[in-house]
Design brief:
345 residues, single chain, two-stranded parallel ribbon, mainly alpha, 64% helix, globular, three-stranded antiparallel β-sheet, 6% strand, 13 helices
Length: 345
C-alpha cells in the first residue's frame, strides 16, 4: 500500500463486510443488518413503535385515597337520585298506597271477607307516607343507582369493557323492575289468596294489620327483584373467568336444587304450587344467564351466534301456531281464553 504524501489525508477505510456474529446498526430509525449464512446481509425490521392508545386501553390507575374519594362521590350521587325519587313518590303517596293495597283488596274480595286495619296510632302515617315511598323510590331510582355502581367499577376495566355501560344499566335495572312486576302481579297475589283463605272454612275472619301486610309485601317484592339479577351475576362470573358455560351446564342440577331451596325460603306459603311460581322463573333465569355466558365466550373466540337461523325458525314456528289457532277458531268454533289451554269451545 502506498504511503500518503505530505499534506494529503488518508482516505477513510471502507468496511465491506461484517465479522461473524456481529450486528451493524445503521441508525436508530433504520433496519439492523445481520450477516446471512451465505455471506450476504439480511435485514431485521425494528420493533414497532408503541401505539398512543395503549395507555387508554389499559386500566386507569388510582390510589387508595382516590378510590375512597370516588366512592364518596358516587354514594352522594346515589343519595341525591334516591332523594329526588323519594320526593316525587311522597307527593303521590295516597295513590301509591292504593296500588300497594290492591293485591290484598283483590284477595279479600275473592274469599269474601276481611279487611286491612291499622292497629297503632302512627301505623298509617309511617307505612303510607314514609315506608311505601321509600320502597317505591328504590325501584324508581334503580337505573340511576346501578349506573353509579358501574361508574365506580369502570376505572378498573379496559376501555372496550367500559362500552358495556348502557347494556349493563338497562339489563340490570330492567331485570330488577321485571322481578318486582312479576312479584306484584303473579306471585304475591296467588300467595295472598292462599294465605287469607286458610281460615275461611273454620270461620276465621281476616283482620290484617297494614304493618304486617307491608312487611310481607316488601319481603316478596325485593326478594324476587334481587333474584331476577341472576343472569347478570352469571355473566360477570364468566367475564371474570370464574365460571364457564360448560361448567354451569355440568353443575346445573346443583343450581336447580339451590334455587328450589331459595324459593322455599322466599315463598311466604308452604304449598308446592306457590313455591313453583318462584322456582320455575328462577330456573329459567339461570339458563338465560348460561346463554349470555355462552355468547360472551363466543365473542372472546371471535365466533358469532347464528341469530338469523334461530330467528328464521322461530318465525316459522310462530306462523305455524298462528295458522293452527286460526284453523281451530274457524272450523271448530273455538274462542281465545287467557289461561291454559288458551283455546276452548
Amino acid at each position: 500500500m502506498d504511503e500518503p504524501k505530505d499534506g494529503e489525508q488518508s482516505p477513510p477505510v471502507q468496511h465491506d463486510s461484517v465479522t461473524p456474529g456481529s450486528v451493524e446498526v445503521v441508525a436508530p430509525e433504520t433496519k439492523a443488518v445481520v450477516p446471512a449464512s451465505g455471506g450476504g446481509r439480511r435485514n431485521i425490521p425494528p420493533p414497532p413503535p408503541p401505539e398512543e392508545g395503549d395507555e387508554e386501553e389499559g386500566m386507569l390507575r388510582m390510589s387508595f385515597l382516590e378510590h375512597l374519594e370516588e366512592l364518596r362521590s358516587r354514594l352522594i350521587r346515589m343519595l341525591i337520585g334516591f332523594g329526588v325519587a323519594f320526593l316525587l313518590c311522597i307527593s303521590f303517596a295516597d295513590r301509591i298506597w292504593l296500588v300497594v293495597e290492591a293485591p290484598a283488596a283483590d284477595a279479600l274480595k275473592k274469599i269474601g271477607q276481611g279487611e286491612l286495619v291499622a292497629v297503632h296510632p302512627l301505623e298509617q302515617f309511617s307505612i303510607i307516607y314514609i315506608w311505601v315511598p321509600v320502597v317505591v323510590s328504590i325501584f324508581v331510582a334503580s337505573p340511576w343507582i346501578i349506573y353509579q355502581v358501574w361508574a365506580f367499577i369502570s376505572p378498573g376495566l379496559y376501555r372496550r369493557e367500559r362500552r358495556w355501560a348502557v347494556p349493563f344499566v338497562l339489563t340490570t335495572a330492567g331485570l330488577f323492575i321485571s322481578g318486582g312486576l312479576f312479584a306484584y302481579y303473579v306471585a304475591f297475589r296467588y300467595a295472598l289468596v292462599f294465605l287469607l283463605g286458610l281460615g275461611k272454612s273454620v270461620g276465621v275472619t281476616s283482620m290484617i294489620s297494614i304493618e304486617y301486610y307491608f312487611d310481607l309485601f316488601v319481603n316478596v317484592m325485593l326478594g324476587i327483584a334481587l333474584v331476577f339479577e341472576l343472569p347478570v351475576v352469571i355473566f360477570f362470573l364468566t367475564l371474570l373467568r370464574i365460571a364457564s358455560p360448560r361448567w354451569l351446564l355440568k353443575h346445573s342440577r346443583y343450581a336447580i336444587l339451590g334455587i328450589t331451596i331459595l324459593a322455599a325460603i322466599v315463598t311466604p306459603t308452604p304449598d308446592v304450587f306457590n313455591m313453583m311460581l318462584f322456582a320455575v322463573p328462577m330456573v329459567g333465569l339461570y339458563f338465560v344467564g348460561v346463554f349470555a355466558s355462552y355468547l360472551l365466550v363466543l365473542h372472546r373466540e371471535g365466533r358469532h351466534f347464528p341469530w338469523r337461523t334461530i330467528l328464521l325458525w322461530t318465525g316459522v314456528v310462530l306462523i305455524a301456531l298462528a295458522a293452527f289457532a286460526y284453523f281451530e277458531i274457524r272450523h271448530y268454533h273455538m274462542h281465545w281464553i287467557r289461561h291454559w289451554p288458551f283455546l276452548m269451545r
